[in-house]
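Annex B, item 7. Sequence and structure tokens for protein A, then protein B.
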Amino acid sequence: MTVQLTPLHPLFAAEVSGIDLRQTPGPALCDEIHRAMDRYAVLVFRDQQLDDDQQMAFGSALGPLEQTRGVVDVHKQRLKHQQMADISNIDLDGKLLGADDRRRMFNLGNQLWHSDSSFKATPAKYSMLHARVVPPEGGDTEFADMRAAWDALPAKMQAKIRDMVTEHSLIFSRGQLGFTDYTEQERRDFAPVPQRLVRWHPGSQRHSIYLSSHIGRIVGWPVPEAMALIRQLLEHATQRQFVYAHHWRQWDLVVWDNRSTMHRARPYEDHTYPRDMRRVTLTDVAPTLEQQMAA
């Protein structure tokens, strides 16, 4: 099998053809996929009728998987694999989540711009989301190219933020929506972690702004001043020229690099239609503060 790439956006994102991921790719094909990810940061694989085991096998072929999920009610897992995140509106009994279910309230935070697992000490590398059931309209996912956003910053702003350290937590992102309903264990699990605000991507040899709704502080800054700057950067980074909007079809598998992109889910009628999406996430090599920056 050979990777065939069709660009989907002038800056990033490409559709991949010529690959059937029901067969776990070998090392040579994985290397091709990694190189494509370094270039495009978002890859769309259409018509991949995978089951959970096959999706897990594909993820594992590309690198180490995250072992924990950042969710509330973590014990309520309807999927076979504990490492697989259930990005759906479906309850354990197969019915739609109730309007006031705390899992539904918590999951509304996915509609904020974010980078997956930036709230973990070692954040995510790739995410791979598979569409099993999609609603008839709505529910798109938007991606922002954080490398292009960095490149477009004035040199003075680049110098200002280059060495900044931020703190990330799920409590910060959900707090923007007024969600405060946590157990004591969840509060401990979601304690803030430090991350670089600017990252260097060794594969693409490019800088990116490491933004996320999970940011709640800049180390050494007053919180209001810090969050005003983060808001300014978010508005800059999500201008339409930096954004690719993916309209889901059943059996799409989309893989994105959390080191180079942000994303957000778009609304749909989740009280009427099921949306069954399953995510496997690869972990990065180390905390961002331990990763090398360009000289």
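Protein B:
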Amino acid sequence: MNTQIFHHILIPVDFSPTCESAIEEGAFIAKSFGADIVLLHAIEGMHSYPQNWFTGCEPSTINGIIRKKVSAKLNTYAKKIRLKYEISVENLTHVGKPTEVISETVAERDIDLIVMGTHGARGFEEFFLGSNANKIVNLAPCPVITIRQGFHENGIKSIVLPIDDSLHSRQKVNDVIPIAEKCNAVVHLLGLIQSNNPVELAKLNIKLDTVEELANKAGLKCVRKVVNGHNIAMEAMKYAEEVKAQMLAIMTDHESNMTGMFMGVFAQQIVNHSKVPVLSIRPIKGNYAYPT
């Protein structure tokens, strides 16, 4: 099997409660894979920080104050992570818009996983809401885990793996199986179909058989269910909540050549509204085979 091993995990930090959840999740995964962490903060300007930071200061000292305060906050996070998880943590600060800073850091640091909150302080909140939700999720060359505000569980005990009628859908298996192995998680194999056609259902079940066999070979517990529904995104999120999953895996490009499942608005709907952390994977064009 082509296992996806994470070596360098990037966690964008905006000092919000959601970002703290992302740090915990990223640290847990880093510990599981023996990876290191890069905590990244994008400095956009004094409007993004508490105004009491600058009370009575000279304009010429503002940039220095921001860097000093940000550095102290990042060091606090890093110290906590090192003590709790015994992993390597590096702090980075760069001036610029979060999208640009994240993209540059991913390329420069050979990042193979991004873990970040979907709703946070000003800057990242504007970055993720609405049509901008897919800018990092869709364009990042590596998988991205997004976490919504209010998620506080630590660890990954169960993963929902949706499978539909598309060729791209099966690519998720390459990433999900290794994560489930490392975390000893239950794989909830969710077959998604928008047709009552018995031939289509039979084809879907053949695909589910193959993925279930791979999970069993890896020694994983696999729970299987088929759902027929109009809004596949809603069905996937609903099921993930029902089984109390800690991860829902989707493809960023599309899930179905026939129906457009998760394409565009569906992907945004899941990333922005799933209460369960979402693992988003960009399809590799032309790579349609199951892992071996």
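Comment on protein B: The chain is about 40% helix and 20% strand.
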